[in-house]
Specification:
about 200 residues, mainly alpha, about 90% helix
Length: about 200
């Protein structure tokens, strides 16, 4: 239908000069300015051509153009809405990412604080254990020193009493029996202990 309307308008445009020439041959030759009778036929033909072209444009071309423009406007609107939705989704995703990142940072900080607390508690526990062990070692060392001191004193008094016994027996010219010697050692130890205390 669009093609036939186009053919009609093209035919009308092609016939317009022929009709104008035919009307000019039938009438007198015109001068520089045509007369009213000479201008009526071209005017009617031009009006008919305009009406046909306007009708074709109004019924076929403009609705198609309008439809295409409306479709394009609808697509642009849809694309704008899609872009707005995508922007909103990206904004929401960014906010969610920021929240997740802040939460992860808070958890990491909490874990670091827990590790520090555990480290301080462990260090305090190890120090307390070390202090206890050190105290026990000191006490053992003091007991060992005291035992060694007593053993040395006892050994020294034993040797002194043996020496004193030997000297005394030479002086007295008699020999002391083991009981006398033990009594002499015990008595000397008591005197030494009382002198040191």
């Amino acid at each position: 239908m669009r093609l036939s309307a186009f053919r009609v308008s093209a035919l009308a445009l092609a016939l317009a000069p022929s009709l104008a020439l035919a009307s000019e041959e039938g009438e007198n030759k015109a001068g520089v300015l045509p007369t009213i009778e000479q201008g009526v036929v071209p005017m009617i033909v031009a009006f008919l051509v305009f009406a046909v072209v306007f009708a074709v444009l109004a019924t076929k071309v403009w609705p198609t153009i309008t439809k295409g423009l409306d479709e394009r406007a609808r697509k642009i609107t849809e694309e704008i809405e899609a872009a707005e939705n995508a922007r909103k989704q990206a904004k929401d995703a960014l906010e969610q990412y920021q929240q997740s990142l802040n939460q992860a940072r808070a958890e990491a900080q909490k874990m670091i604080e827990q590790a520090r607390t555990q480290q301080v508690a462990l260090a305090a526990e190890l120090k307390a254990k070390a202090d206890v062990e050190l105290g026990q070692m000191r006490e053992r060392a003091m007991r060992d020193i005291e035992a060694a001191k007593r053993a040395a004193i006892t050994e020294m008094y034993t040797q002194q009493s043996n020496l004193a016994t030997a000297v005394a027996s030479k002086i007295l010219r008699r020999e002391l029996n083991p009981g006398d010697q033990a009594a002499l050692v015990q008595e000397s130890l008591r005197e030494l202990t009382s002198a040191h205390n």
